[in-house]
Amino acid sequence: MMRLVEAASVERSDPPRAVVPLRISVVQDGSRLHYGLPLGLKLAGILGTVHTDWFVRPGSLEAMAVDWFARMGGATGRRLADRRCAGLDDSRVVASGWVGLLARFLEGRGETPEAIFVRRSQAIASQVMADGWRDANGLAGFVRNIDPALCEAARCQGLAVVLDQMIAPIDVQVHEEARQAELWPNWQSSRDRGADIMRRIERQSWDAASHITCASDYVRDGLIGTGVARERISVIPYPVDVGAFPFSDRRDRKGPVVVGFVGAISLRKGAPAFFEIAKRFDPAKVRFVMVGPITAAPALVERHRGAVEVIGSVPRTQVRQWLERFDLFLFPSVCEGSAGAVMEAMSTGLPVVTTPNSGTPVRDGEEGYVLGCEDLAGMARRVDQLVRDQDLRLRMGAAAHDQVQALTVLRYGQAWHDLLRRVCAHGGQDISPFL
């Protein structure tokens, strides 16, 4: 009797669904994550078309132009020159090219960055709709840099839409920056000017998405606190190109210990805290160096930097050389998604003193130290501890290197593949989190 019941049960069960091959279109603004998302999807065998504004193909007119721009100097030329990726099949990339570049040159100087981002995202959305979906059954992109209307159109066409929240929600960001402005009254933040625009874009994007990813618990908690259901969020850590940032042996260093920073020199990234901590050390014994674009007022940075050596913006190809010169990494950021600069520093074997808001894989007491954004005394104490104890620096630096070795583009693509497979299996509807 039991066998008959079992057989009847099998006969009545629905036949298994056919596995439909995944084909994912990506909206890629700039070179975000150094093209880590489309590269990861390509390695996973599910990349469809990549839509972007500017992409440099070998031997193209764009390549000759950006090489000339780079020789002329300037941050804009360097950014344009970095819009290339040898790992992507050129045939997969659709770029607006010169039309998009001209539109950027014509942008109004008085506009907020948020208003400019909206117009750029709408331009790429028009490009995607004109090009068509090319048999895609999924769309991937980044909240704040993909047009919510495009996401809604994709859902209406039956595509699964998975979006990455690349930084904590705007309400969290505004709160953190406002608190820093109170602590550092001479530093100014213009974030409130465009906050309403970003708030609207975020809400519309979350509503249009089948599922949301983020790279850290810090961002996930911010999303939940802003009202996004926990089950709609999956944490997928960002990748780091460990091959481009190999381990550096720092055992035989001579001279002052170098405390380094890579990133935008701004209020949000913790520049005032970095400057303040540097004041507590003897510059003959400890050097503090900041590498990155100065997004705060240059005169303000000059007035407050004290003993800090501010290098300014450098080509991405030089970042590794600067990291190799550092002995430890201080990153007191107050709001991130997951700082790639920290993971690159870890890959080279640098111990890190940072905050939980940096969203990095640093574990307190293992690869460095994690302290509250306002605990400057604590950060200075931990920096001093690492300065004085070379064995501790080397041990934590080695642990940092080991910690990020698994965060490869291949792993990132596989994690997205598994998540997208589950989303598509549910008809593009919300699913439980993928952790």
Automatic annotation (TrEMBL):
This entry's Enzyme Commission designation comes to 2.4.-.-
GO terms (molecular function) for this protein are: glycosyltransferase activity
Give UniProt keywords alphabetically: Glycosyltransferase, Transferase
Concerning InterPro entries, the annotation shows: Glyco_trans_4-like_N, Glycosyltransferase_grp1
Location of the Glycosyltransferase subfamily 4-like N-terminal domain: 184-242
Q: Tell me the superkingdom of the source.
A: Bacteria
List the protein's name: Glycosyltransferase family 4 protein
